[in-house]
Amino acid sequence: MPIRLQRYIAILSVILFIGKLWAWYLTHSVTILTDALESTANVIAGFIGLYSVILAAKPRDLNHPYGHGKAEFVSSAVEGALIFIAGLMIIYEAVNQLLEPRPLHKLDVGIYITVITGILNLFVGLYAIKTGKKHRSLIVESAGRHLMTDAYSTFAIVVGLILLLFTGWQWLDSVVALLFAVFIIVTGYKVIRRSLAGIMDEADEKLLKEVITVMQQNRKPQWIDLHNLRVIQYGDVLHIDAHMTLPWYYEVRDAEMEIHAVEDLIKVHFGDKVELFIHIDACMPYQCKLCALIKCPVRQEDFKAQQQWTLENVWSDAKHGKQ
Known about the structure:
Alpha-Beta Plaits
């Protein structure tokens, strides 16, 4: 689904770019040129994104043991850089237009064309964001947010063009373009920042909290402790590493059953594309007070309360209950 949608986004970006260039050719409005230049980034990013989604969908191999999902982060970073550059180009054109005004033509036709492109971007962007979140595809979600940004800026630009049409104040053309150039640059920075965070394996606190919540709410009595938890999203594959403490007398097959139970739990909530690596630790006597397994045959201390798993205590590489 992400590949097909990204293909449609790439094709749509070309069509809308041509439409906006046509509107600029008819009007000579630097404000409409602003919209067209941002669409240049859409076109390039759309096809880079398509390649990245196809690459990210490839299974892991000997050279890429964690798969190809990081290609999405690289693609998203390129998209952010293109948005940023487009903003700088818009500032250059707007200043030139302000210093050396050029006559404008057929603003009404330009407005109609611009409105149509904005509406198309809005609906496709909303659908792309929804699909990207559902399939955990950063590039599709980023493309959707980019289209939404394009749509919002287009609608605001239309307001500026309507004011220009009725007032005849030509300087409004450059002022509106400058305002949205700043907005576009900020958007590009945010896309780059998120992409670099993924490349550097920066922790996704929202995703980590979601995993912890699922584990805590569906916790079994024999799952005594959870620590050294790591969660990384590469493409649409979720990688989870953790240490789990089980009763020390469990046989290997018992421990294996518990690992499969955790894996099934994660897949129910996050989809089938999950890689789970759990290191099993044997419980220690000082952890009896944390163990909710009532029928434990070797209990040495009364049960007091389970250690509630939170973001603050599951990431550290240390068993709980010693102090």
